Amino acid sequence: MASAPLPPPGCPHAGPARRSVAKAAALAAAGITAGLTPTAWAASAPAGAVAAGVPAGVAETARTAAEPARAAAVEDPLPLRTDRHSQGDILAGFRKDHACLLFLHFRDAGQARQWLARLLPSISTTEEVARFNQAFSKARRRAGGIDPESMSRLWTGLSLTHPGLRLFAGKEPFPAAPPGSSAEAFTQGAAARAQQLGDTGTSAPQSWLFGAEEPGRAVHAVLTLAADDPEHLATAVAGHRDGAGRAGATVLFRQDGGTLPGDLRGHEHFGFADCISQPGVRGFDEPDPATGSTVLGKPGTRLIPAGEFVVGAERVGQRPTALPAWATGGAFQVVRRLAQDVPGWWAQVALRLAELQRAGSAPADAGREWLGARLMGRWPGGMPVALCPAAERLPRPGEDPDATLDYSADPDGWKMPLFAHIRKGNPRGGLVLTPGRPPLAQAELDGRRLMRRGIPYGPVYDPDLGAGHGPEASRGLLFVCHQADLVGQFELVASKWLNEQDFPPGRNPRTGADPVVGPDSPCAFETSSQSGSRADTLYFGRYVRTEGSVYAFSPSLPVLRALTTGELDDSIEFHAGSVLRPGDVLDAGKVRLTLESAGELALLDDQGRRTWHTATGGAGHDAVFTPDGELVLRTAEGRPAWSSGTTGHPRARLLLRPAGELTIVEGDRVLWKASAS
């Protein structure tokens, strides 16, 4: 599940208006375009562009904080599985039955850095989590689907908020926070963006349990602990609380979570199987040789470029991240506590079902699960309503419930309502931006997926079990997701898709907001009729309430190691394989790199004056930093119009320094430099 946050003014800038890469994406995210990056970007890339797949060097995120590895392409088809530098929950997933998140505030930067140095060896990497998960899955299959009790591990993850990064580094982590960018959203924080994300009324920050503290008590770090054994987890939590206390830290909030017991295992509190539809990751998940574009054994799961989840890897459309070097190898993390009113939600479902039955739009003998499944988009066991609309069918062992799920043949939502939770959050191949026109291809939406790592909290709702299991108990979902673009992924899906009544756009009557996690909203329940489509308007209130929200970032281990001494590289990194197009801007505050509409690469100062340019006479069509370490300005035909002449350096990095330099470095060696001087 995902839930429904106007931001205060961003960082002021002198000089002419600047359009950052992130801002361009945010503009595309508004209204009619529904937040889609123009696919012409990918289609128009010259033939000489970077080859598809994971760019060289991304498999190993960084060897040191200042020098991410740029290893040459190797034979390993799944290089991200051996990544020892990115944190393990991002791509591999901790996937434990028990978890605890500690929200920490530090009073002293020196003590905080010492605490981090002691914690660092215990932080789990992608390699070790992926290796364990693979072995666990094999053992489980051999045991006929029973979890192997002999295999147990404790995983540890750490993310830092904007105040936390500033505390550990002793400086502002972003040289600039352009309007509409992830840097701006992260700097402002979840509480400041509550209005635009729908966190209002009973979900407003004033009532949050964490994430809306006063500046003097702001969350600095989120420590995630996950384990198979609850006793092992409890011991670890106690140890970490003591360690944080010795460092002068305060535990602002403790959030426990756990898989629901019995028949609800793998389900959320409303009773539906959860986290079924996760994206596959190119370079991490094994591709199906028959398609090359889906995960082996999961024909309904598309492989998506890793850069949508880990900063620095290949992205959809080869878009630059416009983020500082310290973000490479890490991911933005969103943590939200979503309280669920189980009896209230199901009572509402029963009332709306009765309305549909009186209107003749639902079978007279349908039970409330018939409509509940249509609101969620799945039956409780996980099968999509679109594939078995009449009644629930449980997935067969090893079956991918989404193997043939595609909404392109159901543009009006007669099988799967347009407002269904799983369709609003992931429209697949059924998103029609203009009624009557063909739907967009699924590939158009790859850049909007989230890597979800949520877990339920609180006891199951079952008054028959006695005290603590009734409506008075606190229960819900701890929603956690990872992404490389905070605005273009989480915020867009939450505000433009789930919460927006006019999504999909242009329909009459309007579709309505997500009836599971969205705000109060009328929804159009559409069915077929002799004259075409018939719509019954159903009104849904809000029964999922936000009780806390934090924006954090999970840095790579080398960056965390650098933070133990207060180091943080705030240069803007232009990653290998990224493409700069006319109008795009990489903003380092006092200096910006742009590809001007006249076709020249240029450095601009904070007044918009040129300090360096390529003098290519308008020949430039786009600019790419190749995996071999060369910055190339290309013509529309893909031929070089200008080059840095630094080919042959696969470990090289291209950095825009806030001091005013554009430089290509290999370790401590400067290969090429352009600056105002």
Notable traits:
single chain, alpha+beta, 677 residues, globular, 5-stranded antiparallel beta sheet, 21% strand
Overview of this structure, please?
The structure is a single chain. By secondary structure, the chain is α+β, with helices and mostly antiparallel strands. Among the domains are: 343-447 and 487-541, no CATH class; 588-675, Agglutinin, subunit A, CATH 2.90.10.10. Helices cover 19% and strands 21% of the residues. It has 13 helices and 26 strands. The chain has helices spanning 21-28, 40-43, 88-91, 109-119, 126-142, 162-169, 182-188, 230-246, 342-358, 368-376, 421-425, 486-498, 557-563; strands at 98-105, 154-160, 221-227, 250-258, 280-281, 294-295, 298-304, 331-340, 451-452, 455-457, 476-483, 521-529, 532-540, 544-554, 572-574, 579-580, 585-587, 591-595, 601-605, 610-613, 622-625, 631-634, 640-643, 653-656, 661-666, 669-675. The strands form seven sheets. Strands 8, 9, 10, 11 and 14 form a five-stranded antiparallel β-sheet that branches. The longest helix is centred in the first third of the chain and has 17 residues, at 126-142. The protein is globular.
Could you tell me the radius of gyration in angstroms?
25 Å
Distance between the termini: 52 Å
**What is the strand tally?**
26
The proportion of residues forming helix, as a percent range, comes to 10-25%
Show unreliable segments: 1-19, 22-74
* Count of runs of 4 or more consecutive helical residues: 13
What is the average per-residue confidence, as pLDDT, rounded to a whole number?
89
| Category from helices, strands and their pairing | alpha+beta
User: The biggest beta sheet, please?
Assistant: 5 strands, antiparallel
Shape: globular
- Tell me what portion of residues adopts beta-strand conformation: 15-25%
